[in-house]
Write a structure and sequence with these properties.
single chain; mainly alpha; elongated
């Protein structure tokens, strides 16, 4: 029976480990992929020495070293699931050292591991934090081998300082376990236990000026962002759109957006970008949720999160607005958790290659050449440093003016003045006016930039045009001169009649007209 019980424990542990692996591989891969992108691990001696300036240097270094293998979904799933299994084994051994039977110890060990699992489901939880816990547990299991009560007590402070320097916040778990074990197994005099523990807990505060960290950071390092015990499939879906955007899989982004049906601004941002790259923005704009003009750009302001700032460069880069793309990428890196990012370093290199700034591009490519997985990409990009046919270079405006960061209309007009063939800039300009419900501005931009194009008018633009022409009492000849299809004209008349009969109630119109500009114009509440 005893052996059967042990086998059942190990079977349960193995099953849960495999479950965690499959979860992070198939159901929740994009959180780990993002964590890799928001780190930049350089294989240099200077990078190694930089970790020595902070507590938890060993677990931070090891965590970042392993995080670079999150570059594939399988790599992240393997590392996280194995770290959780190791944590369960160590906690189980710790509880066994307190005299617990095997089965209760195994069950108790699953509780902190479950919490750790939820932490890993957060956007910013670092692997180094898990390693800090593992190192603390290992240190505790070593120190309890000391049975001499005087040695057990007086060795605490130097061991505490050593563990703090190596593992950071893990020292709190180490201290708690040391206290309980000492009181129950080693020392009967409580003062002999509590006094070293209290003195030890002052060490992070005393060392804080040396490490240049705040009091709060002193006790939670290497954790740098707020903790979350939440599995967010909303963010997982957004990160899926983001990841496919980086890969340029535009139809995959559109497909996922259709499957998810999310009413989320960031999701709309990526969906609209994919539609523009697929030349479908003017036709399919209202097939997806549109919260307003904010669905086209992510703001870079004091109210933005570091993550959305990092995301915001995607549109600017593909528009050819390299100043704003660089601004967003630099701020995204500065405000990120580690102040370094392989993803944003790549983007900054691409930006400087596009604008022909070879020295600046070489700086970023030089950093990437010191990584394990991006050195090949960096070497390939070096061939573009002095090329003349660099993608996106023709979109870059030849003139620039002082403008506000959120003056998107002015930015798009500058892009079009420099290159009227910039179709993405035109689509974004027209859709900005449409989503603002600014019909006169749309008409003016359309007449200036689109009307001369020898192409079929997209459905959404036709729907907005017919409203403008209807307002000024245009004739049928004028409608035909603009090339508005008869199907749009008939649809508009049907909507007008249905709207009049509805008495301003959107419910009867939603099913048939919910994906039209007219429905959006009458009923959508704009979000800034």
């Amino acid at each position: 029976m005893k052996h059967k019980g042990k086998w059942m424990e190990w079977l349960a542990a193995g099953t849960l480990t495999v479950t965690a692996f499959l979860f992070f591989l198939f159901l929740y891969p994009y959180h780990n992929l993002l964590k890799e992108q928001m780190t930049l691990f350089l294989h240099t001696s200077d990078n190694f020495l930089s970790y020595l300036n902070k507590p938890a240097w060993l677990t931070s270094y090891a965590g970042d070293l392993l995080t670079q293998f999150y570059i594939t979904a399988a790599g992240g799933a393997v590392i996280v699931s194995l770290s959780l299994l190791t944590e369960w084994l160590l906690f189980r051994k710790v509880f066994r050292s307190f005299g617990m039977l095997s089965a209760p110890a195994s069950a108790m060990a699953a509780i902190p591991v479950a919490v750790e699992f939820l932490f890993h489901c957060g956007l910013h939880y670092p692997l180094s934090s898990t390693l800090s816990t593992l190192l603390a547990l290992g240190s505790f299991l070593l120190i309890i081998r000391i049975r001499n009560r005087h040695l057990y007590t007086w060795l605490f402070l130097p061991v505490f300082a050593f563990v703090y320097y190596l593992a950071g916040h893990g020292v709190i778990i180490f201290t708690a376990l040391w206290l309980v074990f000492g009181l129950t197994r080693i020392v009967k005099n409580r003062l002999l236990i509590f006094i070293p523990a209290l003195l030890g807990m002052l060490i992070p505060l005393l060392l804080r000026p040396v490490f240049l960290i705040s009091p709060a950071q002193a006790y939670k390092y290497p954790i740098k962002a707020p903790l979350s015990l939440n599995i967010s499939f909303t963010w997982e879906k957004i990160l899926a759109l983001d990841y496919q955007t980086q890969k340029g899989n535009w139809f995959k982004v559109i497909y996922l957006a259709q499957q998810y049906g999310m009413q989320n601004r960031v999701a709309s941002y990526y969906t609209n970008l994919a539609l523009s790259q697929s030349d479908l923005l003017g036709d399919w704009l209202f097939l997806f949720y549109q919260p307003g003009p904010g669905a086209l750009f992510l703001p870079v302001s004091q109210l933005s999160t570091p993550l959305t700032i990092a995301f915001s460069n995607e549109v600017f880069f593909r528009l050819g607005d390299m100043n704003m793309a660089q601004h967003s990428a630099m701020l995204g890196m500065i405000f990120s958790q580690n102040h370094r990012s392989s993803r944003l370093t790549k983007r900054l290199a691409e930006i400087h290659i596009a604008i022909g700034d070879a020295p600046a591009a070489e700086k970023y490519l030089g950093l990437l050449e010191k990584t394990l997985f991006y050195r090949k990409w960096a070497r390939e990009q070096r061939t573009l440093l002095h090329a003349t046919d660099v993608p996106l270079r023709e979109k870059i405006p030849s003139v620039d003016t002082v403008r506000l960061a959120d003056d998107y209309v002015n930015a798009l007009e500058i892009l079009l003045e420099s290159n009227p063939e910039n179709k993405m800039a035109l689509d974004y300009l027209l859709c900005t006016h449409i989503l603002r419900k600014d019909i006169p501005a749309f008409r003016e931009a359309y007449d200036k930039w689109f009307v001369w194009r020898a192409e079929t008018i997209p459905v959404v633009y036709a729907q907005a045009l017919i409203v403008s022409l209807y307002r000024e009492g245009a004739s049928d000849e004028a409608l035909q001169a603009y090339g508005i299809p008869y199907s749009v004209m008939n649809h508009f008349m049907e909507y007008t009649n249905a709207y009049g009969k509805s008495g301003g109630d959107p419910a009867p119109l939603q099913e048939v007209y919910g994906n039209t500009f007219w429905f959006y114009y009458h009923f959508a509440m704009l979000q800034q």
